[in-house]
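Blinded run. Sample ID left blank on purpose so nobody reads anything into the name before looking at the predicted structure. Input follows.
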Amino acid sequence: MEQTFGVARLRTRSIDRFQAGVHENFLPLEFAAPRSDVFLATLTARQLGAAQIALVSADAHRVRRTRVLAERSEQGYVKLFWQIAGASRIAQAGRSGELQPGNWTFYDTARSYEIESSDASRFAVMLMPQSLCRNWSSPAFERTGLSFRSSGASRVALASVMTALRDPEGYDAVAADTVVASISSLMLAALRSESEAETLTPLQVQLNRAQHFICNSIDNPELSPDDVASALCVSRRTLYDWFARSGQSPFAFIQQTRLERCRQALIDPEGRNRTITRIAFDNGFSDMAHFSRLFKATYGAGPRDYRKRFLG
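Blinded prediction complete.
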């Protein structure tokens, strides 16, 4: 991996190279991708005191921390995970959670877990030795593998991670330890706040299922509410009832997801060589004129002008 001021960067089309980069900077994991021949991923990582942080953008893939791999580790870690774009699903200790942009989770690397991420998934992670998490009580660890909503504390913590990844200057030991302790405290506060909030209703669980399916299928230009209802084995009316509580129809969510994926791809510096047509087609649009009209109506500028505004 390329190293600049302590920040490691990797851009690869190889699932094996991506796996090696994760192993080098984090922990051994088993990787799998549905389309390994066209897999594309970027990884930006840096050491922050005793912790490790990273920003990952990748095509659809699945990682598994098996029991054998967990037992080989000499030290346990807490891993924080913030979903920025796309969608992921985490499973640990018999619990599972669906992560949409803004959601976060955490898990215990001393136990097996699995994370499956969609195409165009983008997320930040932080790996902390459990010795730095002594104020995380035992009940807190009974919530690993669940998805939590964004809060002020979790957003501030994520901003701290992103700032550290962008900062070209190094951190001395005291500064790094202070930042890590602050992030740990913020995420514990977010977890406590979540524990006090109302648990997800059955309707919210079903809505999350539908949204996760859409995010994983967004590259299909034929995707429709009927397809979603059929895949989830419910009627079209039931599907619309799930979405009605969110104030958005299934069709509107599909369109919004397509547009937001395109917007994020257009302003990603690492994807500046991708054509606008390629970005639109990869996210389920099949008519460029229609895509341009929708994009301008939503974001106030056409895709070309919008990209130029951010990337020059």
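Unblinding after everyone has recorded impressions. The longest strand covers residues 77-85.
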